[in-house]
Amino acid sequence: MTTDKPFDAMFSGVIGQEYQMLKLICPFATEMSRLVGEIVGAYCERQNTQQTVVELGGGTGITTLAILSAADNLKVLSVDNEPIMQSQAQQSLRDWVAADRLSFSSDDALSALQALPSDSVDILASAYTLHNFHIDYRRQVLAEIYRVLKPGGQFVNGDRYALDDISVHTRSTQREVGGYFKVLTEINRLDLLEHWIVHLFNDESENHVMRESVALAQMADVGFREIELQQRMEVNALVTAIK
Ligand SMILES: C[S@@+](CC[C@H](N)C(=O)[O-])C[C@H]1O[C@@H](n2cnc3c(N)ncnc32)[C@H](O)[C@@H]1O
């Protein structure tokens, strides 16, 4: 992370190339994308016009596909600044692009949001992206999310939300690390194990960790209402809010 690049490029190496291995060490990740899609679908069902969805951190397209499949009356702009990740989504989701349901931005999340007009987006959806951000950058992103959403617009984020009880959080993270070792040593992928452990240190560092109460308070500070933590699965949670 530098002043020029105020975000961490943690998905450029082996993690990005072999991102599909995540489902082995974090089965919740796939479920979370499904849940994000469900929230988006339910929101779209209540509207009778075309809905604009901006997705932050589309990655290889797992969450993007869940969103696209959730309703017919939506179009997605999927933002991701890591080419190794986004190129996989561009390949697997090319039919959705051809059908004019999906477009991509390779800007970083904050720049992409800053380029959008105020009150122009119906739904802002994301999974496992915001927790990667530096806390200062995340605060700016949240304010921009609020700005670009239309009044009444939906924010949904399925992500790592650190538990407020630090001891419980630590035990949960320890179990998670145990799972990484079990799965990745069994298939002899010590290279991936190393990268995911290094990545986890970034997630858990004081200037990145997205602690539940702090994160929800930040959302309230920028103006969101009806802020709800809908489901928690260990260190993972589904958070929704309305502008
Ligand atoms: C863990 S992946 C999640 C991908 C997908 N949503 C899923 O759940 O499978 C996080 C993604 O966020 C992207 N990302 C991280 N920081 C970003 C930033 N500042 N701007 C845009 N994308 C970012 C990474 O490149 C990566 O593809």
UniProtKB/TrEMBL annotation:
Residues 53-153 form the Methyltransferase domain. GO terms for molecular function: methyltransferase activity. This is Class I SAM-dependent methyltransferase. InterPro entries: Methyltransf_25, SAM-dependent_MTases_sf. SUPFAM superfamilies: S-adenosyl-L-methionine-dependent methyltransferases. GO terms for biological process: methylation. Pfam families: Methyltransf_25. The keyword Hydrolase does not apply. Keywords: Methyltransferase, Transferase. It comes from Methylomonas albis.
